[in-house]
UniProtKB/TrEMBL annotation:
It holds the Pfam family adh_short. Belongs to the short-chain dehydrogenases/reductases (SDR) family. InterPro entries: NAD(P)-bd_dom_sf, SDR_fam. GO terms for molecular function: oxidoreductase activity. SUPFAM superfamilies: NAD(P)-binding Rossmann-fold domains. Transmembrane segments: none annotated. This is NAD(P)-dependent dehydrogenase, short-chain alcohol dehydrogenase family. It comes from Streptomyces wuyuanensis. Gene3D superfamilies: NAD(P)-binding Rossmann-like Domain. The keyword Electron transport does not apply.
Length: 311
């Protein structure tokens, strides 16, 4: 991995002529990622569930980056029909960068439109399907990258192949950890398949450390747990780094020269805050057998097959 010492947004190479899709670009890490890519000249599609928030983000980026080439595009990762519509309506002939950023954290038990446990369905399966449906564009774009945002909290739990949807027992933080492990196993297997196919597309992963976003408060707010929500807000104010700092590992993985396949980039200081650096990951996220099993299960659950990247 190339040197990351002191790496900031000023080090992002020129992105003119490149097209990027950033999921969950209406707030937090995704918004910063989209804004900085646009600042460097990329055409950026803001793939968001809420049209109101997506349009708001589009207007905000244009105000902060005069001349930015940004556009809201509807995408609900909790609904595979929406994922398919997004892919079908994608008009650029090529795709240089797909940032699988959107996610939910520690929500009460719920199901997506297709019946998947919400965290696994949105954080992993929605992005698995999206990447597969856009794979043809990525494969014909020289130097393309897929960056999937995981979390240091993947270390909470390995995936349970016998209970991917947490039907036997649901524990919100365990389910979150499993979904973030799934992000890393997906990156691992995608990188392996791309290499086997002789493709130069780079699949990498990143995480923001502890960054102040609305992820921390969403679950408590949904359940009306005001004390937990206030504690999360306090932690964001006192302990977390900014969303701008939290986006640096993603931006590094997405744009820095020499990023290798299947790398995991996070903040330098104990994986919590600071400049981008190689991040520790649980050994189970590098297991070839687990990666292939999750891939096959994901294809079966979503109905999306990567025909150009058969195992």
């Amino acid at each position: 991995m190339p040197s990351t010492t002191g790496w900031t947004t000023h080090d992002i190479p020129d992105q003119s002529g490149r097209t990027a899709v950033v999921t969950g670009a209406n707030s937090g890490i995704g918004l910063v990622t989209a804004r900085e890519l646009a600042r460097r000249g990329a055409r950026v599609l803001l793939a968001c569930r809420s049209e109101e928030r997506g349009r708001g983000a589009e207007n905000l980026v244009r105000r902060e980056v005069p001349g930015a080439d940004v556009e809201f595009a509807p995408l609900d990762l909790a609904d595979l029909s929406s994922v398919r519509r997004f892919a079908e309506s994608y008009s650029p002939g090529t795709l240089d960068l797909l940032v699988n950023n959107a996610g939910v954290m520690a929500l009460p038990y719920g199901s997506t439109a297709d019946g998947f446990e919400t965290q696994f369905g949105i954080n992993h399966l929605g992005h698995f399907a999206l990447t597969g449906l856009l794979a043809g564009r990525l494969l014909k774009t020289p130097g393309a990258r897929v960056v999937t945002v995981s979390s240091g909290m993947h270390a909470l739990a390995n995936v349970d192949m016998g209970d991917l949807n947490s039907e036997r027992r649901y524990r919100r933080w365990v389910a979150y950890g499993r979904s973030k492990t799934a992000n890393l196993l997906f990156t691992h297997e995608l990188a392996r398949r791309l290499g086997a196919a002789g493709s130069d597309v780079v699949a990498a992963a990143a995480h923001p450390g502890y960054a102040a976003t609305n992820l921390q408060t969403a679950g408590a707010r949904l359940e009306g747990r005001r004390t937990a929500e206030r504690l999360a807000e306090l932690g964001n104010r006192l302990l977390a780094q900014s969303a701008e700092a939290g986006a640096l590992p993603t931006l590094y993985a997405a744009t820095a020269p020499g990023v290798r396949p299947d790398t995991f980039t996070g903040p330098r200081l104990m994986g919590w805050r600071g400049a981008p650096a190689p991040s520790r990951r649980a050994k189970w996220t590098l297991n070839d057998v687990a990666g292939e099993r999750l891939w096959m299960a994901s294809e079966q659950l979503t109905g999306v097959t990567y025909d150009d990247l058969r195992g």
